[in-house]
Structure formats: structure tokens, C-alpha cells
Amino acid sequence: MTEVRFYHLIDQKLERVLPQLLELSLQRGWRVVVQASSDERVEALDAHLWTYRDDSFLPHGTSRSPDAVDQPVLITANDGNPNHANVRFLIDGAPLPDDAANYDRLVLIFDGNDDEAVALARERWSQAKGQGHDASYWQPDENGRWVQKA
């Protein structure tokens, strides 16, 4: 059964949260694919992950990279899994993949200040539960740490 985690951004930006979650995934030895909404968004995230922190290196590439299959973190706007990731991050309203059962974990990150994103996350929640996945809902506490709420 695939674990589907819903991360509700309230006073945080994706550009701050995503690198932290990717670092944790790599520390656990997971391979990751991040699905964004467009090629432009992929390029923006790629640039951001090279510069988001001076004292850290987050190995990653994009689906346009000739060595995409070797990347521990791959950013794409497509629904494939060229780097054989076991964790898939879904941002910008990316849909649950048809091959969701092939992942250990799906991580759906949505902006709680965007009514459309919240409505879409609720639809994805129902879809995940309907497909028999183990869905959980996470919000940051007053210290910014993620706490499971459902």
C-alpha cells in the first residue's frame, strides 16, 4: 500500500519546504521524483535547488538531463519515473499518478492560502482513499515542525 502524505503550507513557501523534505528523503536513502506543473517551473526549481542554501548540496537534475536515470532527485513536468524513484512529490496541483501503487510514498504539497489548491487537495485525498492508499494530512505547528493532523 502506498503512503500518501498531504502537506498543507500555511505560512511557508514551497521553495523553503521542498528542499528540506528532499534532504530528509535522501538521508533515508530514497530516490525521488518531483512532478511540477510546467517546464518553466521545473527550470525555476532546478535553479533554486542549486542556490537555496550556501552550506548544502542537494544532488538533483531534470528530466531533460542526459543522465536523468542516475539522478537521486529528478524534477519533471511529466508523469514518468525515469530515475526509478520510490518517492514522488506532487506540487502545483500535479495529479496522483496512474502508477501510484509502484511508489512507497507520494507527497502532495499544497498552498493553504489558495482556495483552488485546497479544493484540489481535497479531491486528491478522496481519490487516494478511494484507491486504498494510506493517506495522512500534515500541518506545521507554531515552531514550523510538521505534525500529523489526520
From TrEMBL:
TM ranges: none
InterPro entries on file: DNA_pol3_chi (IPR007459), PolIII_chi_sf (IPR036768)
Molecular functions per Gene Ontology: DNA binding; DNA-directed DNA polymerase activity
Example of a GO biological process term: DNA replication
Identification of the protein by name: DNA polymerase III subunit chi
Species whose genome carries this gene: Pseudorhodoplanes sinuspersici
Any one Pfam family match given in the protein's UniProt record, by short name: DNA_pol3_chi
Superkingdom of origin: Bacteria
